[in-house]
Amino acid sequence: KTKWPRWQSSFIMQLVEASVRLQGKTALITGGNSGIGLATARLFVAEGAKVVITGRNKETLEAAAKELGPNAIALAADATDIAATEAAIKRGTETFGKLDIVFANAGIPGGTPLGSATLEVFEKVISTNLTGVFFTVQSALPYLNDNASIILNGSVISVLGIPGYSAYGAAKAGVRAMARIMASELSPRGIRVNVVAPGAIRTPIWGAAVATPEAEKAFEQRIALSTPLGRIGEPDHIAKTVLFLASDDSAHVQGQEIFVDGGAVASP
Ligand code: NDP
């Protein structure tokens, strides 16, 4: 068996630590039991973080916690319920310590075409995708370390005029505006607030459009045609950008929005 001299093993340990970007950090990820949130939770744990994930579905929360292992806990909390969100954050930080990262990611689709949208659906989309994001950040504030990083999940639909998405697009445009204002308000504590804005990503959010292999293939082809890079995005594309925004690699990035969309927003 190889025995490394002490100076060599300490050098190797330094290399390992340098390659793990979130060592000693605690992160909250709302909607961490599916899609983009779960991919981000996996990456964060692999990068050395302790992760608190929330969502509403107890079964998928349990499955995610089992998969993520001892450095993650999964707590049921509806993002539209401020008291439940506060309680989850309190419990999560009692377990893992104060937060260094918040990824306000929970969101729903919800078609709201001008001719047929109901007030109920419109308000549900706004309350989850906009109000829920605001109160997640507000609830996390007392539990945030100085110099923390907050990332909000936006969407290309905040800038592209895609029919049927009035409430969703309005909520995500609101997320961009809120991020800039929160960034100003929280800069004195060194806290950064940025937005990751995905294009179409392969996750369960697309519901029936990806429910069968045939439907998924047709959906992928449609997305590929409207995306300069010619493909649908994967949850890991977003997770890696969130990791950049969460880590010190983005230490001077404040109040920005990064589109991760294969070029959809940039194309004419
Ligand atoms: P998923 O449906 O896979 O994930 C959505 C997550 O949000 C789930 O974990 C869900 O958990 C959680 N969630 C929804 N409503 C609530 C609520 N009221 N309270 C707590 N958790 C909630 O979709 P994605 O991973 O694709 O979506 C994640 C984010 O990415 C959303 O904000 C979405 O708008 C955004 N996005 C996604 C795009 C895509 O193409 N996939 C494109 C642009 C943006 P549970 O059901 O257990 O509550």
Automatic annotation (TrEMBL):
Residues 25-204 form the Ketoreductase domain. It holds the Pfam family adh_short_C2. Keywords: Oxidoreductase. Its EC number is 1.1.1.47. The keyword Oxidoreductase applies. GO terms for molecular function: glucose 1-dehydrogenase [NAD(P)+] activity. It is an enzyme of class 1 (oxidoreductase). Transmembrane segments: none annotated. PROSITE patterns: ADH_SHORT. Belongs to the short-chain dehydrogenases/reductases (SDR) family. This is Glucose 1-dehydrogenase.
